[in-house]
C-alpha cells in the first residue's frame, strides 16, 4: 500500500494500523445495547433521533433508551422508502423511511416508541412527515442564522419543547440539575472523542479513519458513563504508543452524512488503496465533537448555544462558517487533500459543493469531488478516481520534498507545497 515518508517523498509499503482487538469491547457494548433496545422486556420507552443537532442530554436525563438512527446503505431499504417519495430524494432519507416500514423495516427502527427530528434539510423534514404514519414523531425547528440573538432565544424555546415531550414520553419530570449533570457527562465523552481524534495528527496515526467512525458510532448508542470509561482507556493506551512507521497519504473527508452502513468509501481509501482518512467534516465523523456545551448558567440556553455553536452543517448560515472549520481542520491535521463527497440529490451538500471546492482550491489544498448513492454500482469508478487523486498528491509531496532538499543544498528558502501547485 502506498505511503509517503515524511522526508523524501519516495513511496514505501506500510500497513495502516487498525485497532482491531481494541474495538472489540465497544462493538460488544453497542451490540448489547442494540439487542436490549429491540428485545429487553422492560417498560423503558425507546426514543430515536436522526440529527446531530438533537441533544441526547435530555433523552438520557429522562432515563429513556435512545439512539441516533443513521444505519443506512442497503439498496433494498432505499427502494422500500422510495415507494413513499420521489426518486429525487437522497438515498439516506429514503432509507430512513424504508427502515420504519411495517413488516419489512429494520427491527431496531420498528422498536422505536417515539421519533424526534430537528428540521435540517427539506428531504429529512419530508421523511419525518412520512414516518409519522408509522410511529409517533415530533419535528422541532432549528434556526439557520445561528449567530443571531433571536435564533438563540428561539432555539432555547424549542429545546424546552423537546424537554417537555421527552418528559411526557418517559413519564417523569426532568429537573435543571438533571440536565446540568448530563451536560457535564456528555462534554467529557465529547472531549475524549476529540482527544482520540487528535491522535490522528501524528505523522503515522495509531488509528484509522474507519476506527474513528466506529468510536463515533458508539457515542450514538451508549450512555456517557460507558463512553467515558471506554474512550478513556483507549486514549490512555494509544497515547502511550510510540509514533513510528511511514507517513501515509493523509486525506480529509467533507460533505454529507456517512451512514453507519455506508463506509465503503473510507474502506476503499484505507483498505484497498492504502491512504488514510485523518479527519472528517461530516455529521457522523469529528464534526459534532469539536465544541462542547457551556456547563454553567441556564442549562436549556446552554444546550441551545452549545448545539448552535457546534461545527455547522451546510444547511446553516452564513455558509462561510461551514467553510472555515473544514479549512482549519485540514491544516491542523496535515491533510494532503480533501475528498468532498455528497449523496446524489442531497439538496444541502450538492448545492454548496462549488463554494466548498472553490474555497479549498483557493487555499491550495487539492480537492476530489465525488457524488455517490447506496447502489454500490460505482465501486470501480470510485476506485479509479481516488487512485488517480492519490497519485497526484503523492507527486506533489515528492516534488515538495525534492524542492526542500534542493533549496537546503543551495541555501535557498524551501518552496511551499502551494508554490509548487
Ligand atoms: S443533508 Fe443531504 S444527505 Fe443529509 S439527509 Fe439532507 S439531503 Fe440527505
From TrEMBL:
The keyword Zinc does not apply. This is (R)-2-hydroxyglutaryl-CoA dehydratase beta-subunit. It comes from Blastochloris viridis (Rhodopseudomonas viridis). The gene is bcrC_1. InterPro entries: FldB/FldC_alpha/beta (IPR010327). Gene3D superfamilies: 1.20.1270.370, 3.40.50.11890, 3.40.50.11900. Keywords: Oxidoreductase. Belongs to the FldB/FldC dehydratase alpha/beta subunit family. Pfam families: HGD-D (PF06050).
